[in-house]
């Protein structure tokens, strides 16, 4: 085993047992080199492994902060409500409804999926709070022709449970686009991040069983609390 691997494993162990608490800085590169009696290059390699495996986050001029390595799995391919995600992973979270109002069709949707400029949508803006911090911002646009209204108590609890149970809608599938982006102004305001921070942005078009488009959503997710998981199977040619 290389020196940097031994250093990596020891620091990893100290993070896992709480010697270096979540949210706190680990010793500096210079201090670690003295602690382990190795070169700073060895420490850099060990830190690179810690970074790649989600144990620390490095910021220029601020050192390396310990991340919460007990992350929640975010299923990218599934069509799962946040309430269902909470239940599946025993996640203690709070939903706050910032906006719930009828708006004109947003410009970026006009002309897509048959949306016209005269249409109305219900716009929901909600934050998902975990351990006192906003970790997810969800923006949703629901077509009023399909979803006439969403009561505030429903917006705070589970919209899909209401749509399927009360409105008897048959929610079927979605197309999604996921990418890492510099945090938006909305994220700066609600997540209290810095202009140099990145979030995962997921855009979704959601459809009913009869292929009717009824919802567009944008989810802004902080990187340090979730990891994204997909099931993949190789497609073999038929012989």
From TrEMBL:
<keyword id="KW-0804">Transcription</keyword>
<keyword id="KW-0805">Transcription regulation</keyword>
<dbReference type="InterPro" id="IPR036390">
    <property type="entry name" value="WH_DNA-bd_sf"/>
</dbReference>
<dbReference type="Pfam" id="PF07702">
    <property type="entry name" value="UTRA"/>
</dbReference>
<keyword id="KW-0238">DNA-binding</keyword>
<dbReference type="InterPro" id="IPR000524">
    <property type="entry name" value="Tscrpt_reg_HTH_GntR"/>
</dbReference>
<dbReference type="InterPro" id="IPR036388">
    <property type="entry name" value="WH-like_DNA-bd_sf"/>
</dbReference>
<dbReference type="GO" id="GO:0003677">
    <property type="term" value="F:DNA binding"/>
</dbReference>
<dbReference type="InterPro" id="IPR050679">
    <property type="entry name" value="Bact_HTH_transcr_reg"/>
</dbReference>
<dbReference type="GO" id="GO:0003700">
    <property type="term" value="F:DNA-binding transcription factor activity"/>
</dbReference>
<dbReference type="GO" id="GO:0045892">
    <property type="term" value="P:negative regulation of DNA-templated transcription"/>
</dbReference>
<dbReference type="InterPro" id="IPR011663">
    <property type="entry name" value="UTRA"/>
</dbReference>
<protein>
    <recommendedName>
        <fullName>Trehalose operon repressor</fullName>
    </recommendedName>
</protein>
<dbReference type="Pfam" id="PF00392">
    <property type="entry name" value="GntR"/>
</dbReference>
<dbReference type="InterPro" id="IPR028978">
    <property type="entry name" value="Chorismate_lyase_/UTRA_dom_sf"/>
</dbReference>
<dbReference type="InterPro" id="IPR012770">
    <property type="entry name" value="TreR"/>
</dbReference>
<feature type="domain" description="HTH gntR-type">
    <location>
        <begin position="1"/>
        <end position="69"/>
    </location>
</feature>
